[in-house]
Amino acid sequence: MTTEQSSTKEEPKVKSNTKAIVAVGIVALLVIAAFVVYSKAVKPQPPDNAQLTELKWDNLMGSRYTEILLVFGNGLTKHFIAGVYNTTGLNGANPGGGGDSSPAAILDKIDMKQVQEDNGSLSTVKNGARLWTVDHIGAKAGKERDFQGLKAHWVMWFPIPDALREHKDLSYATMDARRDTSMGIRKGSRAYILDDPQGNSWVMKSASLIKDPNQKFEGLKDLGSRLKLPPGWKFRTVILENDLVFMTDNGATHITQDDIGNTYDRVGGPYSNFKP
Q1: What is the pLDDT of residue 40?
Q2: Residue 66 and residue 76: Cα distance in Å, rounded?
Q3: pTM value?
Q4: Which of the residues 80, 143, 147, 256 has the least number of beta carbons within 10 Å of its own beta carbon?
């Protein structure tokens, strides 16, 4: 009798211990699940700009290049920033500028999903191939990464606008960027310009071969007939009578794109030495 009574008294403790073990197991699973979600949704910004080297490229007008964007940040808070990696001066091109730094034989074979995994980013963007429409650039370049044979320097951080993340059309919209580069178009070169309804002017710095792979550098002077300009916008080209120097407002600049994907920097005021 004593043994049976003793056994009856111990039974609730066994159930209690079992519940405790189950509860601990559930908490552990939740912690693991949270870690998995966090590790997939959060990719910290790497220190790719920790060591910078001053680079200068000349004779760029019309030369081909590509930018690879690695997107880092927090998918839970929806804060994202992209590292921009530029091929100029690499991949067989002239290190001092000019030539094709984005050979199609390499670029066309890149698996961007694999690039994402190899570089620990949330996502990736292949921004190219493109053609420079400036003569010279000076940049403080950071880490060089190898994207399946396509080498590229870190050149800037680019905050990802919500609209871009949501895949909205940003043609003729103003985007903010930060860069520590100098760019210029020399006297006697042609500049390709957008004028917006507010009186701001935007000078093309690169032509895109993404939406229209058949776009030719020589045909940019007639681009106005191909663009679907919003009301109040105008396209024009000029042969510069003075050197145009692109600048920033304490590192901040503004960019826009037309409906073909050509990219323009704002000029005038703190953004250039004069407004063409």
Answers
A1: 59
A2: 30
A3: 0.83
A4: 143
